[in-house]
């Protein structure tokens, strides 16, 4: 304790006043609330020790607070990483020691409240796009990955019992059980359980026209169609609100397992497609159109699969019923597929 403040604290003095006296420079007063997860640090035994990272999510305060940190592709603002190449927003990776099973990783991303929520796990392609051999740890340090394994949203093996993850130390992808119960290195080699890097489509209220320029509307012809939000060009639907690209709905129903495979192998305009999240699907519902959505999607009131799973071990999946305008869930291995596929990808 500084000699100038020793013995000068009167009863009823607030903890912030105490800290202001203990730290000569007020800028050195420790953070009380994490910008990433909202955790409020509490004093221990009447004393406040300045932490370098959040005690709960372990994100380093220096990374979150570096508001001016920018690169050619990434910029950090308010704890959110803006990706100008894919048109996405990223949340910094869960901290060291925050490895978890895939089931918990999905819940972690879904419940993340940073900047309004709406987060999900990234696809394999989105993760691979971050890998950079020129950076220590395999990715820009703004992500706080540090060579860790990071979960993707994509499942594999029977009934989706395993999930893919990306190893940023070696620059390769691998897979592991979604509900692994141990953490002794047997499942993931010499590494701990994979960590979580959450992502979301850009938020409408966060649009910055300098960073996210609108795609110019093409001339109207037999292969193009425009509306206030959607722009069809070359068989691809451009979404100016979410910054995404959509492939028109499949003309046939199928099980969720086949739907994932259908989207992954879709070669339209270079591939890289995935199933949409529940929020992305709900954003398309428009009761002003017959069938519940803009006709450009070819949905016609059908049920459409989302990428999000439910039930034990992810044996079920959510879908959206555009005819009635609500979401529901059912088994992923329907004996007779009645739910259709609407594929989506980040802008290119």
Would you give an account of this structure?
By secondary structure, the chain is α+β, with helices and mostly antiparallel strands. 12% of the residues lie in helices and 20% in strands. It contains 6 helices and 15 strands. It has helices spanning 15-22, 61-65, 102-111, 124-128, 256-265, 278-282; strands at 74-77, 80-83, 88-90, 149-156, 162-167, 172-177, 199-201, 224-226, 230-233, 236-239, 244-246, 303-310, 316-321, 326-331, 344-346. It has a 5-stranded antiparallel beta sheet with strand order 8-9-10-11-15, with no helix packed on it. A 4-stranded antiparallel beta sheet has the order 1-2-3-7, with no helix packed on it. Strands 4-5-6 form a 3-stranded antiparallel beta sheet. A hairpin with a 4-residue loop joins strand 2 (80-83) and strand 3 (88-90). The longest helix is centred in the first third of the chain and has 10 residues, at 102-111. The N and C termini lie far apart (56 Å). Mean pLDDT is 77; it is low at 1-7, 23-29, 181-190 and 204-223.
Strand and helix layout:
Blueprint: H1 15-22, H2 61-65, E1 74-77, E2 80-83, E3 88-90, H3 102-111, H4 124-128, E4 149-156, E5 162-167, E6 172-177, E7 199-201, E8 224-226, E9 230-233, E10 236-239, E11 244-246, H5 256-265, H6 278-282, E12 303-310, E13 316-321, E14 326-331, E15 344-346
Antiparallel strand pairs: 1-2, 2-3, 3-7, 4-5, 5-6, 8-9, 9-10, 10-11, 11-15, 12-13, 13-14
